[in-house]
Amino acid sequence: xxxxxxxxxxxxxxxxxxxxxxxxxxxxxxxxxxxxxxxxxxxxxxxxxxxxxxxxxxxxxxxxxxxxxxxxxxxxxxxxxxxxxxxxxxxxxxxxxxxxxxxxxxxxxxxxxxxxxxxxxxxxxxxxxxxxxxxxxxxxxxxxxxxxxxxxxxxxxxxxxxxxxxxxxxxxxxxxxxxxxxxxxxxxxxxxxxxxxxxxxxxxxxxxxxxxxxxxxxxxxxxxxxxxxxxxxxxxxxx
Length: 239
Prior knowledge:
Blueprint: E1 2-13, E2 16-27, E3 31-35, H1 42-49, E4 56-61, E5 64-65, E6 75-78, H2 90-100, H3 107-114, H4 130-142, E7 148-152, H5 160-177, E8 180-185, E9 196-201, E10 204-209, H6 211-218, H7 223-232
Parallel strand pairs: 3-8, 3-9, 6-7, 7-8
Antiparallel strand pairs: 1-2, 1-4, 4-5, 9-10
Helix pairs in contact: 2-3, 2-4, 3-4, 6-7
């Protein structure tokens, strides 16, 4: 069963066509990486999926039209810039989201622990580093235990150990809990951590396949090399 079905997706922003004829089917209960350089359209695709962006075409999420009110409890969304209140503690931020979703007492502490901030729950978010604020934002998305997580650059600014730990968390959520994850990144070395990859370039879908199949198809040894070869062999996105 597909968790996301996109057909003929076009988006115009500021008079410019930023997404062009995207057709995409994302499988349920796996980790799908949305990769591409800055400005490729990753965030715009995610905004369409969570119902925050006007578009032309069709976007179906968990069997419903994107943006339907019933999906609000089914999807956790982490924006690229942390969506947290700086004058509240980490615990208060996550607790607020827990209350909105009717989660039981203690769920906020569990979510904070999941992102490696168990000892920072009482700290004001405004005094935290950028990476710590991002992890609080991630905990706010996790606390509702949604069926789908849409995460925009969740590992940006984190050290290698924290990046590894978060990817292990993402893998366990899909494998053990059946959560569908769509995770964007511009870091190609994160590609091998995903079950499937969606590569974007200049608002177009460049490729959608499993990492090892993309490497085999392009004859590349690394994902960055595969991405460059795909660009070179796709005339409409070549420079």
